Amino acid sequence: MGKVEEVVCSFMNYGPEALPDLTSLKFKKRLSAYLDIYREFLKLSDFIIDSEIGKRTVKCKPGCSFCCNQIIHAYPSELLCINEFLDKQPGIRNSFAEKYPQWDVDFEPFREAFWDSFKQMPTKRAEFRSICREFSSQCPFCDDGVCSIYAVRPMVCRTWFTKRRFTSCNEKNNKDKQLKLSCYEGLHMAQLHLDQYFMEQFEIEGLPLGAFVSTLSHGVFFMNSSSLYIKSLKRKAS
């Protein structure tokens, strides 16, 4: 077991107190060390999810992709990891840039209500879920039903599965088809802890974690570079 793997296993077993202090490192090394930890967390998360899915009846299959038409949110760690991936995949970034404008146009009628309900969670949870169900526009990273950033997709995507035939996901006024995983709450809480850890390591203080959440599409579109993104978070918090 490598050092980073040991760190992540300790984190999952004992909580954020097991994570190392990175603040003495220069910016680039600090970011690299943090992303190493985050990528290892994704690997372990996939193992945990796959272990449970292997024992459940799941109807998802490659190409169905209806869940990719919903509003997908992302945390800073996820956006940084995706941005690093896109730096090495310019073709995927260019494809995203071509599709993003239409997605943003589709999002416009929902923009104000979406963020209002999100900021007042859990009080407006029902309204938030209603907006997410009503919105329908394919994620700019979806190419012919396949996720072009699958290896670094957000946690909300990793933990979304359907328990009925996948075609029923597209039926209007139908009940929620999501298969609730027993590992769901634990993994999402771990995600929150890692984002809190990220903010501490980069000295971003002053706002609750939820204030840094973005839609996946907006977060990627407005991120010029990881360093500028982190600086923008600091300005927002100050």
Characterize the biggest β-sheet: 2 strands, antiparallel
The overall strand count is 4
In the residues, how many domains can be counted? 1
Mean pLDDT: 87
Radius of gyration: 18 Å
Topology:
Layout: H1 3-14, H2 27-53, E1 73-74, H3 76-87, H4 90-107, H5 111-119, H6 125-134, E2 142-143, E3 146-147, H7 155-158, H8 184-201, E4 214-215, H9 216-221, H10 226-237
Antiparallel strand pairs: 1-4, 2-3
Task: Give a written overview of the molecule.
With 238 residues, this protein is mainly alpha-helical. Helices cover 54% and strands 3% of the residues. The protein has helices at 3-14, 27-53, 76-87, 90-107, 111-119, 125-134, 155-158, 184-201, 216-221, 226-237, and strands at 73-74, 142-143, 146-147, 214-215. The strands form two sheets. The chain has a two-stranded antiparallel ribbon with strand order 1-4. Strands 2-3 form a two-stranded antiparallel ribbon. A hairpin with a 2-residue loop joins β2 (142-143) and β3. The radius of gyration is 18 Å and the shape is globular. The relative contact order is 0.17. The mean pLDDT is 87.
